[in-house]
Structures are given as structure tokens and as C-alpha cells.
Amino acid sequence: MSEPLDLIVIGSGPGGYVAAIRAAQLGMSVAVVEKDSKLGGTCLHRGCIPTKALLHTASLLDQFRRSSEFGVDTMGADLNLDGARSFKSGVVDKSAKGIEFLFKKNGIQRFHGRGRLVGRHEVEVTGESGTETFWGKHVVVATGSVPRDIPVARTDGQRILNSDHLLELPGVPASLVVLGAGAVGAEFASIFASFGSRVTLVEMLPRLLPLEDEEISTELQRSFRKRQIKSLTGTRLAASESAGQSVRLLLDKEGGDQEELDAEMLLVAVGRAPVTEDLGLPELGIGIDRGYVEVNEFMQTSVPHIYAIGDVVKTPWLAHVASAEGILAVEHMGGNTARPLDYDRVPSVTYCDPEVGSVGLTEAQARERGYDVACGKFPFTALAKAAIAGKTGGFVKVVRETRYDELLGVHIIGPHATDLIAEACVALQLESTTEELFRAIHAHPTLSEAVAEAAHAAVGQAIHF
After folding, report:
1. CATH number of the domain at 160-270, please?
2. Residues paired with 125 in a beta bridge
3. Start-end of CATH 3.30.390.30 domains in the chain
4. Where in the chain is the domain with CATH 3.50.50.60?
5. Which residues pair with residue 294 across a beta bridge?
6. Strands ordered across the beta sheet of 235-243
7. Which residue, of 21, 85, 124, 399, is most buried by count of CB atoms within 10 Å of its CB?
């Protein structure tokens, strides 16, 4: 066995590598176990980053198609899928090399292989050259998740796909059904609609992006309809069958009706499953609930020096959540002041067109918790900067309580919503009032003015609408 380490992290995704860097900053000796050939995990190689690279390509394609509206004449805009995939790979590779540099800078060791706990402090790493065991004073499990498979539509990589498959498609399908209208489904629907596919979204729940504020969902469905993206909500997939060059779907609709639907391909985007099998956790008495590791508010398992973060615990499947949990876990194990995360203040971002960004309580959640609620909305169509950019769809919605004017939530659908939401994150973290939000002077002309205008509207003082 090698020299003892202060911390062994299993997994190098945005939870694992951030935890490792923070631990090194605190003076710990750290090693990270990663089974893939490159660092970065699912987010970098098969999730957040490659998806957003393709969304950027889709956005540019749409802009070029509209360029004459802005006084720019072009000879036409066509998708070069090989070029788009090359661009995507370049972004991913650069980021992976950046993580490698950070490991060297911080003196973090990297063990290539599959890790599992074989004792309370012992981590076994199995790689191409064999098996070796390492000792860690602390261990962080950050093994992430994989696309969830469902019995009614087993993925085959040909006609029935998951998100990993879709990122590597050699061509654009003429028609695509997306099962699941959460963030992953909405983003891929947006990408392939821009690329030229005839897209249908199928969602079991009553609306798109079901975790968002209801008015956001309604606006997204309206916007998708304008883009010729069909949405079938309240609809369950009953059966699927690959038939030659297509896949045939049987759908159960709300009210008992059934519908058959044929498409060239089906994307299954119904969530992700935690990677916790064969990690040796139950053998150590660590609780597992439906595949998720049970932890306390500091991310500790029932074995106090073993922590779990990210998609393997029952918190939102978001890279920034995993990173925050990694920092929390490491600071706690290092004896630093550690404050449990407030998951009400976690931003949610969806990079479809139009973008969606939100933080805090939805209007319905605020009312369920007993607040006396007032809301304000401001449409981007009334904003000069949105008109300049040619993106006037959507709005900002502010949710407040009336007794103390506490800001409860901000919900945005429209241009650069995923960036604009950062202001609201800071405001909620500082327990801002709605008045403080609109008293802060916002530069003109900017998209951020919409946030201040919505705050004005929430207290009945709308200026420009």
C-alpha cells in the first residue's frame, strides 16, 4: 500500500475535482480516482459542456438565417455537422487539459482506474495494469450518474437513444421524438429543431419543464410552438418498437385516448441514475436509498469520514450543486466553518431557445408555504436591448412576500436568462428585499433592466410597462 493520503476522491466530475482542489488549498494530500482516460466526468465529456457547445452552434445557425433583419446579407447558412462536432470536441478537450493543469498546480495525484471501497479507509483501484489499494483518512464518493433507461424504451444506440448517443450522431434525423421535457429534453429538442429535425416533445406531467414556475412552462411551450416544436404533455409512452428505418410509439394520453407516432429516432431523456453499484458502500453499513447514498447536511455518510456528493445523493442533478457540495464536504472534514447548503437558493438553468433561468421559490411553492405573495412581470418585448438583439420573447417574473417585502424567487425566460439569473442568486443570498433589487441602478440599455423592471412591477410601481 502506498503512502497514506488525507483525502481520496472517487470521480473527477465537477463535484470530485472541485473537492480535490479545495482540499489541496487547505493543505491536504489528495488523490482522485477516475476510470475515464480524461478528467472532468460526465458534465464535461457527455453532458453540460458538449451540449452547450451544440446549442451555441444552433444559436449561430438561427442568427445567420435571420441576418437580413439586422442589415447583414449572407449567402445562406447551412449546418456543417462535422464542423459542429469538431468545435464541440475542441471545447471539451481544452477544458479537460485545464483540469489536468489545475491538478498539477495543486499537487493532486490522479489514479486511473475504477475505484471502490474495500475497507473503511481503503480504496481499491482497478486499471489496465492491475489492482492497487490506497489508504485515505477521508473519502469522497463523487461517481456521478448515467442516463436512466426505462423498460418500455430500451436504448439501442440506433433508433432509441440516450443523450450520450445523441451527442455523437453522424447525421441529423428527419424526425425526432424526445421523451421527457426536463432540461435535457428541452435542450436537445431545441438543438435538433434548429438543425432541421421535425421534433416532438412527449412529457408525462402536465407541462414542459415541470419544476419551473408554471408561467415559465406556458411561455416555453408557446415559444416552442412558434419554432414548430410539437409538445404532447400529460402523455405517457406505453410501448415502443423499432421498425426498419423508424421507431413506432404508442402513447397514452390524458383522458384515456391513445395515439401512434412514428419517427426516425427516439431520445429517452427521463432523468439520470446514480452510479453507486459495486462501490462497497453497503458492506460498510452506509445507507443506500433507491440507489442514492444517504448523507447528512454536511454530506457525511453514516461512516463519518466518508462523504458523498453530486448525483449520487438526493439533491438536484446540477454540476454547480455538486461543486458546492464538494467544497462543503471538504471544509467540514478539514474543521473549517461549514454552512449547509440552502437548496432553495440553487439556480436552475436550461439553455434551450429561449433560455430559462430561475432561483428561489415559484409562485405556487411560495403560496404553499403560507406566504402572502405578490408577483411582478416584465416582458422583454418592452426592452430596447432585447429589440436590438432581435430576441423579444419571454419575461422576468419576481415573486415576493408582502409583509416584509422579502424576495422569494426570480424566474426568467428569454435572451441570456442563464446569465441574468446570477443577479437574483446574489440578491437571495443576501436576503434582499424587492425594493433593494429595484433601487440598485441597472445600466441602460441592457437586458438586466428587465430584472429591475419586474421588481418594480412586483410592488405595483411598473415604469416601462
Report:
1. 3.50.50.60
2. 115, 132
3. 354-458
4. 5-145+273-343, 160-270
5. none
6. 235-243, 246-253, 258-263
7. 399
C-alpha–C-alpha distance, residues 361 and 379, integer Å: 20
SS3 string of the chain? CCCCEEEEEECCCCCHHHHHHHHHHCCCCEEEEECCCCCCHHHHHHCHHHHHHHHHHHHHHHHHHCHHHHCCCCCCCCCCHHHHHHHHHHHHHHHHHHHHHHHHHHCCEEEECEEEECCCCEEEEEECCEEEEEEEEEEEECCCEEECCECCECCCCCCEECHHHHHCCCCCCCEEEEECCCHHHHHHHHHHHHHCCEEEEEECCCCCCCCCCHHHHHHHHHHHHHCCCEEEECEEEEEEEEECCEEEEEEEECCCCEEEEEECEEEECCCEEECCCCCCCHHHCCCEECCEECCCCCCECCCCCEEECHHHCCCCCCHHHHHHHHHHHHHHHCCCCCCCCCHHHCCEEECCCCEEEEEECCHHHHHHCCCCEEEEEEEHHHCHHHHHHCCCCCEEEEEEECCCCEEEEEEEEECCHHHHHHHHHHHHHCCCEHHHHHHCCCCCCCCCHHHHHHHHHHCCCCCCC
Instruction: Please answer whether residues 121 and 283 qualify as being in contact, where contact means their C-beta atoms are separated by less than 8 angstroms.
Output: no
Residue 265 pLDDT exceeds 90: yes
pTM, 2 dp: 0.96
What's the chain's Rg over C-alpha atoms? 23
Query: Which residues are known to be catalytic?
Result: 444
* CA terminus-to-terminus distance, the chain: 69
- In this structure, the chain runs to a length of 465
pLDDT at position 145 over 70:
yes
Distance CA 225, CA 164 (A): 26
377-407 pLDDT tens trace: 999 999 999 999 999 999 999 999 999 999 9
- Of 347, 344, 346, 349, residue with least CA distance to 368: 344
Q: Which CATH superfamily is domain 354-458 in?
A: FAD/NAD-linked reductase, C-terminal dimerisation domain (3.30.390.30)
Q: Are 272 and 148 in contact, with CB atoms under 8 Å apart?
A: yes
Q: How far is CA 219 from the centre of its chain?
A: 20
Q: pLDDT exceeding 90 applies to what percent of the chain?
A: 96
Q: In CATH, which of 3.90.1010.10, 3.50.50.60, 3.60.20.10, 3.40.50.150 is domain 5-145+273-343?
A: 3.50.50.60
